[in-house]
Design goal:
- Keywords: Cell membrane, Electron transport, Heme, Iron, Membrane, Metal-binding, Transmembrane, Transmembrane helix, Transport.
- It is found in: Cell membrane.
- The protein is mostly helical.
- The chain is 67% helix and 2% strand.
- The chain contains 4 helices and 2 strands.
- Strands 1-2 form a two-stranded antiparallel ribbon.
- β1 and β2 form a beta hairpin.
- α1 packs antiparallel against α2, α2 runs antiparallel to α3 and α3 runs antiparallel to α4.
- The radius of gyration is 19 Å and the shape is elongated.
Length: 181
């Protein structure tokens, strides 16, 4: 087995599951946004909401996992500014992964459309129906989503840079699975 620092199997699984859900939810959001009102559009919105709720719940699980299982240390030769940038970007990613689903839930409540997780579990409305508030929340949700995608692109570019230019193994830590779960 490999002695290099690595994330746990659980952390790796949550990382890639969240990545797939975020990109799937973002792509679905882009696609469905300008569709004419129809049963198909309502179905796609439901799927988008299910993805958002799943991301929110998985981020909570990931946060608990990260608190109880320390991530591997950053490479020893990494400059201080890059360490700060890594910590700030990770914090931003976690924050956005929590705030974006909440903004969607608020937007849905203000629009008068209940969130029913997987069509089975109705979530309480967080706001009364209010068209003006819903329109503001649509903008907030979109801005936050595009900000998250931009941050994910920077995150991925940094990992690729560390792997292929710095050769410090940063990217591979998210692919290697150790014995410690």
């Amino acid at each position: 087995m490999n002695a290099e620092p690595h994330y746990t199997r659980t952390a790796i699984t949550l990382h890639w599951l969240l990545a797939v859900l975020i990109f799937g939810g973002f792509g679905l959001g882009l696609y469905m946004h300008d569709l004419p009102f129809s049963p198909q559009k309502l179905k796609l919105y439901s799927w988008h909401k299910w993805i958002g709720v799943s991301v929110f719940l998985l981020v909570l699980i990931r946060g608990i996992w990260r608190i109880t299982h320390r991530p591997p240390p950053l490479p020893p030769g990494m400059p201080a500014w890059q360490r700060r940038a890594a910590h700030i970007s990770h914090g931003g990613l976690y924050l956005l992964m929590l705030v974006i689903p909440l903004s969607g839930w608020l937007m849905s409540s203000a629009s008068g459309f209940k969130v029913v997780y997987f069509g089975v579990i109705p979530l309480p409305d967080l706001l009364d129906k209010n068209k003006a508030v819903a329109e503001v929340l649509v903008e907030v949700h979109e801005i936050l989503a595009f900000t998250l995608v931009a941050l994910v692109v920077v995150h991925a570019a940094a990992a690729i840079k560390h792997q292929f230019i710095d050769h410090d193994g940063t990217l591979m830590r998210m692919f290697r699975i150790g014995r410690d779960g």
